[in-house]
Amino acid sequence: MTRLILAALLALCAAPALAQQAGTYVLEGRGRDGAVYQGEVQFKPVGPEVWQVTWRTGSGVTQGLALRQGSRLAVGYVSRQGETGVALHELQRDGTLTGSWTQGGSGARGQERLYPR
User: Is 46 exposed, middle or buried (0-12, 13-18, 19+ CB in 10 A)?
Assistant: First the structure.
């Protein structure tokens, strides 16, 4: 019985694998206009809990900087058109990242899901 309780507590407290945050992810998203887009995102560590982020989609490359706190990843970036933007992703137990983003002054939001490669 003690082992069963211990196993249940460990399962509840298990944090997402931090090692999965660095590397390349497959990207599926929906833009603020509803258009679906795909590509890949690369996370390169540049400091403790900080990553350089590079999105590669059919329309080009976007660069950003991410900061992780707990299971959340906040990303600031500048779009190819020079608009600033922010993204907030949540690290899931299976290593995927799900989140939303906005850029420019419109207030519109897009959605993304990133799958580790």
Answer: exposed
Which of 87, 91, 88, 89 shows the shortest CA–CA distance to 79?
87
Helix (H) / strand (E) element for 8: namely helix 2-13
pLDDT truncated to tens, each residue of the chain (117 aa)? 333 333 332 333 344 444 446 899 999 999 988 999 999 999 999 998 899 999 999 878 999 999 999 999 999 998 878 889 999 999 999 999 999 999 888 888 999 999 998
The count of other CB atoms within 10 Å of the CB of residue 97 is 26
> pTM of this prediction?
0.78
| Residue 34: CATH number of its domain | 2.40.128.120
Domain extent for 104: 2-116
The domain tally of the chain equals 1
